[in-house]
Amino acid sequence: MLSIKGLSVAFRTRNGEVNAVKGIDFELAKGERLGIVGESGSGKSVTSYALMRILDAGGQIKAGDAIYSGIDLRNASERDMRDIRGREISMIFQNPRAALNPIRKVGHQIEDVLRRHSRATRHNAKAKAIEALEAVKIRDAAARYEAYPFELSGGMCQRVVIALALACDPKLIIADEPTTGLDITTQKAVMDLVDDLVRARGMSSILITHDLGLASQYCDRIVVMKDGLIVEAGDPVTLFTDPQHAYTRKLVNATPRRTGSIRALLPEGERTELAPHVVGQKPLIDVVNLAKTYQGKSGPVHAVKKISFTIHEGESVGLVGESGCGKSTTSSMLVRLLDATSGSIFYRGEDIASLPAASFARHPLRSKIQMVFQDATDSLNPRFTARQAIADPLYRLMGMRGDAVTKRTEELAEMTGFPAHLLDRFPHQLSGGQKARVGIARALATEPDFLILDEPTAALDVSIQALVLNLLADLRVRLGISYLFVSHDLNVVRLLCDHVIVMQNGAIVESGPVATVMETPQHAYTRELLSAAPQAPEREIA
Amino acid sequence: MNKIVSSASDAASVQVATANGPVTPAKSKSGAFAHLIYVLRENPVTGIAFAMFGILIFAAIFGPMIVPYDPLATDASSVLQPPSFAHWFGTDNLGRDVFSRVVVATRLDLVISVAAVALSFVIGSFLGAVAGYRGGWTDITLNRVLDTIMAFPLFVLAMGVVAALGNSVANIIYATAIINIPFYARLVRAEVNIRRNAGFTLAAKLSGNSDARILAFHIFPNALPPMMVQVSLNLGWAILNAAGLSFIGLGVRPPTPEWGIMVAEGANFIVSGEWWLALFPGLSLMIAVLTFNLMGDGLRDIVDPRRRT
Predict the structure, then answer these.
(1) Domain shared by A191 and A231, yes or no
(2) Of A7, A271, A275, B115, whose CB has the highest number of CB atoms within 10 Å?
(3) d(Cα A339, Cα A336) in Å, to the nearest integer?
(4) DSSP B68-103
(5) What is the C-alpha separation between A159 and A137, in angstroms, rounded?
(6) How far apart are CA A474 and CA A472, in angstroms?
């Protein structure tokens, strides 16, 4: 149905032409579910944009053919492409909120598509739009028809986007990272929905993702892309059990699973022995009845409801839950960026919850409690070079000046594996993994005892995630610090933590040693989290 | 997308200094220069705008030294001469050389507009930054004050200032500055507001920065790129305002050469066919405003390190 031969896409940039896609071939049969897997910069999204002919300005298909049911997509006129988009080939975008017009009711947005492709008239458009919403299992579709995107949750928005994409019964649907930014249980619900609809309507689908586990679960065939080239193609089980190309092996290894050590994420040959870290007996952080209540428009919102837990010296604790469960509020209170409504946080016996967050910046304990932020890009000042970012806490908290700062900055860069020659670059000139290292180096600059890791790998490719997680494991041994690892993914938390706390709706529903919680989860919510994580086919299957 | 311009703000220049300080200075300086060259080359309009700006600056500094005639010297023997080889822009009703007057006027017009814009940039940035960062009552109060200022017509305010403090160039600068404060304050407020809970702001707090430091060194410099566009547009308006005010007799007074006055005086002679009196100062005014308007995008690209790759 779709046949791509030698497709090359190039972008004009300041430094000359960049080839994003360098001659790829693949075919897609009717009813087939193809996965394109690759890390950022591999050209996987560009490939799909080229098919839809919605490349950014400066992008151009340089060579090759893309034939869809006999139509030459490369040379089709813009008028023909407008008819093809939506009716023949449709796309589900990465960020559902950005893909919806924020000031129009979602029902009207679906009507627009229906009427553009003459699938509905003014009189029956509303009924058809509601039908489309029902098809994506939105409850109470008639009421949701009137909703604006901001009134819907992320998962709901993605369902609307799917309804939009499927409204005109396309033959091929391209899903570009459809579940990025969604919770793990929502991810499962959305992917199951897309999969059901694709199968029921006999459509073909292309799933673009960085997550090999996800692709293997929902695709019949996977192509692995790297630097604009297809390095390997095959069915998911074979790819997982017997990867041929070195890069595929690296990806397969780096995908977190239910079992295996943190070192197993690294490519074979780079797996050095991991020294065990020492967990002390003395409590470092003792949280007692910590609560946070916000004054919402419709009464108080209890974001965190009197939670208590202890982190010992050198211990790593995982805090797991979905967005809105209160884990970010908890970590903000622990790092003293936010004042608690009630309760205490004892740091080595001293209650720091009673100190106002506004003046904690000048408190002597400021240097002892630090944080690595979720989004490395957002947490680095765009106008500060890597060196300035790392040096900032040295000037402000450690009172260092002159050569001492330079020396310590370079030491920290070396410790976190950040290349010293890149220190004078600005954040936008660094890769995601390098930015994550700058964030970690900055947090470690003041020699803290306690580090909060707020999903430090959420925005990273799996192979980079593997490196960063291993770096964190090494640093823990070397520096003897405690971590609070905040995440939504138990499979990742498992790798680094001794103890895990599961939160739901602002309360702790389960806590215990990692192995116990993973193997014999007591609470229904923990079991749901565990089953929602995409499972890679195990090697033993073959 | 964000870097270096000589700006009126202390915060900005200190930030620039720290940006280049610990880093090997020679390397980053050449980087800034290479970036400047790149910005000028990438967009020819920016290149032209900067070239015209260079000519304006040259005229402002060296104008009085290079003009062929004394701009104030009257010559009864050559009154209202049309443009000729001896008098490129002709002469006015007192026999003064229009070309000399137009060139000499550049300095005064630039001083008025740059001073007014610099004043409103500094005051507006400070007010807007504090309001955007602190929010709450500070923000609400400031916004209502700004609304009041925005409702005031410039000419009415200028007349008030002149009536109260006397008719001087300095007072005209103050009036123009006050009128422009809201534009900067509003812009900075919005830019600061969206960044006050950004990851890098929180990270700066964790690094032990005080609120004032975070605002001055972390958040404010990030607001500079859109500010540069505002500054360049504003310079254009300020020149027009200064000319407009002197046109109605406020601020600059004859016989001082100033584009606005020259247009005002020349307007009387257009009816009788002596078009050159008003045309040439008007044309200079237009070119100056156009130059500043065209410079905006280029200035923004220069202060934005993300434009460098």
Answers:
(1) yes
(2) A7
(3) 7
(4) SS-TT---TTS-SPPS-SSSTT-B-TT--BHHHHHH
(5) 8
(6) 5
Torsional sign, CA A179, A184, A188, A190: negative
CATH number for the domain harbouring residue A406: 3.40.50.300
In a domain, A101, yes or no: yes
Kindly state whether residue A540 falls inside one of the protein's structural domains: no
B260, B252 contact by CB (below 8 A): yes
Residue A41 tokens read as: 């910069």
Say whether residue B9 is in contact with chain A using an 8 A CB cutoff. Answer: no
A370 touches chain B (CB under 8 A): yes
pLDDT digits (tens, 9 = 90+) for B218-249: 999 988 888 888 888 888 888 888 888 887 88
Contact yes or no for B199 and A443 at CB 8 A: no
Q: Distance between terminal CA atoms of chain A? A: 31
| φ/ψ of residue A383, rounded to 5 | -100, 0
A298 within domain boundaries: yes
Asked if B28 has any chain A CB less than 8 Å from its own CB, the reply is: yes
Q: Which of A383, A388, A392, A447 should be substituted to probe chain B, the one whose Cβ sees the most B Cβ atoms within 10 Å?
A: A383
Q: Do A349 and A438 belong to one domain? A: yes
ipTM summary value? 0.79
Structure tokens at B290: 């156009």
Residue of B nearest to A399 (CA): B208
Q: Does B22 touch chain A (CB under 8 A)?
A: yes
Of residues B80 and A477, which shows the higher confidence score? A477
**Candidate from B199, B204, B308 with C-beta closest to A392:** B204
User: For residue A59, what are the domain limits?
Assistant: 2-255
Q: Which of A152, A201, A211 is nearest to A172 (CA)?
A: A201
CA–CA gap between residue B146 and residue B131 (Å, rounded)? 12
A308 and A181 co-located in one domain: no
Mean pLDDT over residues A390-399, rounded?
A: 90
> How many domains does the structure of chain A reveal?
2
For B205, the closest chain A residue by CA position comes to: A361
CB distance B23–A15 less than 8 Å? no
Question: Does pLDDT of A538 surpass 70?
Answer: no
| Spatial contact of A53 and A81, defined as CB atoms under 8 Å apart | yes
Tens digit of pLDDT for each residue in A297-316? 778 888 898 999 999 988 99
Determine contact: B13 vs chain A, CB below 8 A. no
Q: What would the DSSP string read from start to end of A322-352? A: -TTSSHHHHHHHHTTSS--SEEEEEETTEE-
**Separation between Cα atoms, residue A366 and residue A370, nearest integer Å:** 7
Within a domain: residue A33?
A: yes
Preceding omega of A534 cis (within 30 degrees of 0):
no
Question: What are the tens digits of pLDDT across the range B93-102?
Answer: 788 888 888 8
Query: Measured between alpha carbons, how far is A148 from A150 in angstroms, rounded to an integer?
Result: 6
A118, burial (CB in 10 Å: exposed 0-12, middle 13-18, buried 19+): exposed
